[in-house]
Amino acid sequence: MGITQQIGASSLIKAGVIENTANRPASPYEGQVIFQKDTDQLLVWNGTAWVIPNSPAQNPQGLELVKTQTIGSGVTSQLVSNCFSSTYDNYRVVISDFATSANGEYLAIRTMIANGGYRFGGFYVAYTSASVVATASNGMDYFPIAFTSSNTAYRNHVSCEIYAPYLSLVPRFVSSNASQAYNTNFNGLVADTTSTTDLTVLVNAGTMTGGTIAVYGYRKA
User: Fold this and answer.
1) Candidate CATH numbers 2.30.42, 2.60.120, 1.10.8, 2.40.160; the one for domain 63-218
2) Considering just the CA atoms, what is the radius of gyration of the chain in Å?
3) Contact 91, 66 (CB under 8 A)
4) How far apart are CA 118 and CA 144, in angstroms?
5) Are 157 and 95 within 8 A, CB to CB?
6) What is the pLDDT of residues 42-79, one digit of tens each?
7) Which of 7, 12, 154, 156 is the most buried (most CB within 10 A)?
8) Which residues contact 173 (CB under 8 A, 6 or more apart)?
9) 132-142: buried (b, 16+ CB within 10 Å) or exposed (e) per residue?
10) Per-residue 3-state assignment (H helix, E strand, C coil) for 175-196
11) Using an 8 Å Cβ cutoff, are 207 and 101 in contact?
């Protein structure tokens, strides 16, 4: 009797394929292998935890790419949907190679509704001035992460850490950027514990064009 008659061809082909962390086997056996579709990971149960096969560090901590989104041409905002989940608690968002329609526009992010609960504080320095300028607000509809440049020869690259956007906690933000005209460093939070799966990148005035939004998750043990 052939193996396909014993367990069925469909079971043989897809026995170890699962959708996400919640669908992992409840009582795995040591050496069991699965493929997790949402993270594109091949995992093995070592008797204690799901680990990456043949990894010296066994599930080393690090960044994993969750999703990329191209920024449109002349848009005021760009939605990145379904980028936050229970797979990761904390994230890094990298927005690369884009320009805005004017110098000194706020590039900003929003992880939930525009509820006036975004609070931030930080400072920036214009390269033409030696003065450090402090800025803050406790009632915005978005979190500013950078002052941007319209110079297409010096396109913008921005990095922002987002802590706990999917968890029922108050999300925190930490960002930094060096554009053609400004160096900016901002920190803040949104006073809301609503879980969210989406991210919106926007400018407070004018438009943005080109570039890519990449969302990375910090791998959990």
Assistant:
1) 2.60.120
2) 22
3) yes
4) 9
5) yes
6) 889 988 888 887 666 666 668 888 999 999 999 999 99
7) 156
8) 109, 120, 143, 145, 160, 161, 162, 163, 186, 187, 188, 189, 190
9) eeeeeeeebeb
10) EEEECCCEEEEEEEEECCCCCC
11) yes
- In the chain, where are the structural domains located? 3-51, 63-218
Per-residue pLDDT at 59:
61
* Helix or strand holding residue 34 (H, E): strand 33-36
Query: CA 200 to CA 93: how far, in whole Å?
Result: 11
CA distance 203 to 208: 7
Predicted confidence at residue 1, as pLDDT, reads 45
d(C-alpha 149, C-alpha 75), whole Å: 15
Q: What is the pLDDT of residue 64?
A: 86
Find out whether 72 and 56 touch, Cβ atoms under 8 Å.
Answer: no
pTM over 0.90: no
pLDDT of residue 14: 59
